[in-house]
Amino acid sequence: MVRAVRAGEWPAVRALRPAALRDPVADIAFLDTYEVAVMRPDAYWRERTANAAEGAGGVRQFVAETADGALVGTVAVVVEEAGTTDWAGVPVERRQGHLVGVYAAPEHRGSGLSTALFEAALEWAWREGLGRVRLIVHAENTRALGFYRKAGFTESGVTVLLEGKPDEHEPEMVVER
Q1: Cβ(127)–Cβ(139) under 8 Å?
Q2: C-alpha dihedral, 158 to 161 to 167 to 171, nearest 10°
Q3: Is the pLDDT of residue 163 over 80?
């Protein structure tokens, strides 16, 4: 089942993030590291999860839950407002969503779980009046590129320079309503 995260689920969210950061492609898929994530205090995870549950601060997180209640996948939508700059310092020209933190546990890949997560995230974005949703993907993350294309995203022609990786310009992919 895919649904919005609940504020009280912060321990499960805290456990899911390091699992994602241990993935073999985590170094090209996330702007976070396992070592940093596991050192964050409980207060960080409580606040982060509560905000994502309420949509506070322009972030809404969706999770995939198994029948026994385990969280096995996630995606978050960050609302970027026109006239601001994004996390990479690039000006935001129009109000849009940005998908981040995409993860499906390896044993659930290929099951439709990622598709369900994306459908929930995009449905929420469209309800919020966002006419465009984007994501950034590492050019060598072929598994992710293939999935994003299948989900309807196309390369916009924009590339983003990642912090700490001066030689890597990663493609932006978008879907518009």
Answers
A1: no
A2: -30
A3: no
CA distance 41 to 92: 31
Give the chain's length: 177
Average pLDDT in the 69-96 region? 91
End-to-end CA distance of the chain: 25
Report all structural domains of the chain as residue ranges with CATH numbers, in order of start: 2-176 (3.40.630.30)
User: Residue 50's pLDDT is what?
Assistant: 94
User: Can you tell me the distance from the alpha carbon of 62 to that of 52, in angstroms, rounded to the nearest whole number?
Assistant: 8
Record the tokens describing residue 141, joined without a space: 């993350």
Residues near 115 by beta carbon (within 8 Å), at least 6 away in sequence: 150, 151
Count other C-beta atoms under 10 Å from residue 130's C-beta.
20
Beta strands in 110-162 (DSSP E): 132-136, 154-161
